[in-house]
Amino acid sequence: MAEDDRLLSRVRTEDIEKELSTIYLENEDVKPDMTRLEQAKHSTFKKIVVGGLVFLSVLAGISALGFFYFGQHKGGFTGEQVTLSIDGPSEVKSGEPVTYTIKYRNASDVPLGTASLELRLPDSFHLQTSNPEMIDKNTWKIGSMPPRGEGQVQIDGLVLTQIDKEFDIQGIITYRPANFNSEFQKVATKTIKTVGSVLNLEIQGPDKILPGDLVELTILYKNDSDSIIDNAVVTANWPAEFIPESSEPMATDETFSRWDVGSLLGQTSGSITVMGTFASEAQGQINLPITFGFITADDNYVEQAKTELITEVLQGQLVAALVLNGKSENQTAYLGDNLRYSVSYRNTGEASLGNVEIAVVISVTPEEADLVLWNELEDEASGTLKNNRISWTSRQIKSLSRLEAGDEGLINFSFPLVAELASATANNLVINSWVETLVESIDGDVVNRSAKSQPVEVKIMSDAELTVSARFFSDDGLALGSGVIPPEVGRETTYLIGWQITNSLHELSNLRLTAKLPDNVEWNGESEVSAGDLRYDAAERKMTWTLNRLPRTVSSVNINFEATITPAEDQRNRIPTLVDATVFEATDNTAEATILLSQPPLTTSLNDDPRALGKGRVR
What we know:
This protein has four domains: 82-196, ntegrin, alpha v. Chain A, domain 4 (Immunoglobulin-like, Sandwich); 199-313, Immunoglobulins (Immunoglobulin-like), CATH 2.60.40; 318-460, Immunoglobulin-like (Sandwich); 465-603, Immunoglobulin-like, CATH 2.60.40. The chain is mainly β. The termini are far apart.
């Protein structure tokens, strides 16, 4: 059995050697010695290639490791490691003290150098203190910041602006990481909204009242903060039906619509009392709105609080209204105009009214201005004139002795204004007119009830005048034009067109003068303009002169230009037009209204040229 095992082992060994010989034998005639190992011989080229690949692999690994290391520690400043934030309320009251903290942090492992913080604050934020103190306007020098370093700036101030307004506070930190030559920035923004104010306002007055009865209104204001509010102002926007007559303290303006409170200390209150009446034609619920705010450095009013009183005005027994030149609203007039008034009155109650007096007051501002020609007053009812007041009683109008329910009437009168002022110093002229009524008794009971109507204001416009002319000769007989005169068909004749604007009462602005030229009239480009700019639009055939401003110190401006006409056959034996109607418009800065003047067309009749008069008909 053992002999069989040895025989089998020998057979297996021979088989294995045979298989190996088959694999490794290069020469079939030579058998390799498989009983020992020999080192194989490789080529030099293969060694170089393999070695190079190994070297490059190692180098790539080192480079990747270096890039990872240095990228993480020296080159990754994209703003992620430095943080900036602004902490504080997002909603504030206007005028209330507020604090904001600007926090910054270097979350990297690299120190930062030359860091600075800048705050951009809106004009409505009034900075009071900061910790630390700034070294420049809204700028703090932070200097160097170590790794993981942090800091903060605290600011205290007031927000003074409109209610329900949003604005931003912006912080900018500028820094340079170590071993870098470029600067980086981080920006943080805080949006803030005003949701109220520290200024409070209230108005008190009657719930119901009759026209003509004296009304007492009390305005209460208060500063609920501990800070001072400068340039505080109370304003009123009275409706036309309410006629204020006095106030305590005195109002800043003559219309009792503004009170300059000034600097209002913290936790301080005040009051204003206004006395007035409702007009005789007032009826129903009427709102009396008032506001409380402050004036900014650039003289703008910023409203902080608003309230109103709603009063029901009961219908009065006697209602009177005034109409001027067909209108009941405020208007303008020129010197020399005729003012036509109508006074309507009616007993709207159910009781009879006894011994009624109706009067119209004509108040001129300034008082010394002699505007009205009272000696030319025309009054159908022949009222009594005394101190710019015209009154009518039962002596002039019998029905006024007793007005029954539903009775009504109408009084008409008129007067002219002076054409020229006696004094040039009075330039802001205003006429206010209103109706005053007095009822002595109601159904026999003595009441002596008085009332006023809504006033009608008339602003006097500037005395600007427009003069136009066409001439061929000067006053001295020198030829200003050229060509044939009288004009002839097919032949050119040139005339000198003159425009003049005179003005002395108010300053004017946005002056504009225009006129069109007929088809057979041309401008040759020649002109003389004392001020402003003269242009010609060939497409529209329009001459236009403009001037931005004409002060009172400049009494007149003159424009002259040449116009050449070549009469057509159909104009023979006619007087052709040289310049169509001339229109002048400007803004009266004092009256705050538009002046509009015009002159009729200029023809070859030359009415302003005595030497050429009668030589305008085409031959």
